[in-house]
Prior knowledge:
The chain is α+β, with helices and mostly antiparallel strands and 424 residues long. It has helices at 10-17, 42-46, 55-64, 74-91, 114-129, 141-151, 165-173, 185-193, 199-203, 207-225, 255-275, 313-327, 358-379, and strands at 2-7, 27-30, 37-40, 68-71, 94-99, 102-106, 133-138, 157-159, 241-252, 280-289, 299-310, 334-342.
Amino acid sequence: MIFHIDGNSFYASCERIFRPDLAKKAIAVLSNNDGIIVALNTECKALGFKRGDVFFEVRRKMEEKGVAVFSSNYTLYADISSRMNLIYNLFAPEVEVYSIDESFLFFPDWNTDYSEIGREIIKTVKRDTGIPVSIGIAPNKTLAKMCNKLAKKHGGIFNWFNFDKNGQDAELENYPVEDVWGIGYSKAKLLKRHGVHTALDLKNYPLLNAKKFLTITGFRTVQELNGIVAIDKIEEKPRQVVMVSRSFQSPVYELDEIIRALSEYTQEAVNRIRSGGLSCKYVSVYLMTNAYAKGDQYFNSLSAELPYLSSYLPEIQSVANELLKRIFRPNYKYRKVMIGLTGLAVDNCQQFDLFDTAYNRKKLNEPLMRAFDTINDRYGRGTIKLACGLGNKPQDENTPAWEIRREYLSPRYTTNINEIPLTK
């Protein structure tokens, strides 16, 4: 038995937890640099706004209609997500986190009322986190995802087993094929040319044709619509590459400023590989102007191979800075710098050259990085960082141009003690 649980309007619901004044109010959440709308609740959709709207184009209209706008607060969203999954683990023997707001719960074939378990989960999550969730219950993941969408129209829970075959087929017949998990726009377009318009049509689609035209993924989707368990639990694989980049909120001209940005991104990239117990063999740096802006354009990149696998931040940062200096050209309006770490592997056993000392790398560097990680994990990312590209500029100056624009950022209520809301 599989439950698919989804946080309803998750980003907007997270922003509403500590803002009871926003109950039943329209809420929109923006992307990095407050560029476009990436999430919105039902009330906001009812006003005519949609995901992907460019914010500066609809900003005045949103103000007129009283929409509460927030910059993406991923620190808050990730923490609420982890709390929700802790609750899921209290109920289910096994939980698979599918995304920040979606999880699959796996139950054995108990002789019990699964709908009642679902109602208890909904009540507990709402009470303990403030987030409303919907639950789809089915024998496999594809049907569970579909039942979750149906649950939003049926009081929060939709149990596939509450219907006989005729009832199930009736639901499939009213479900558009493009909304089936694993069937995207291009596959749906192909299927419609074959007369497949609904999930019921896809259920009855010949498996031979499914394998021929939809590959193995579509083949398994058709099997699951017929009640067969064909899509396994996702086994997390080691990363193959880590890339970190963000567009600057305004053009940057100075090399020193770009190095400061690169330092922030490199620290984040190294943290990601270290969290997976990995090290990298190659470092790449990309530098570019804004392709959509007027003026001269420039794009360049450069890579370097490390002499050995490394996850030592000062070493990787030094290489990245050197690469940046080599591709930097003055008098351009730079809009983005990107760091890429590739050749990732577990650094358990490696061959050193004759003059290298394992003592220096293993006995000194690794404990230093562990202390670095521990401090930032405990007190927040960026508590300590490398002093790269600081030049002669004071640290308390105005926000640098390369920092992300977050004019509507809410407090990190659950992870920063200085931002806990106070009552009068």
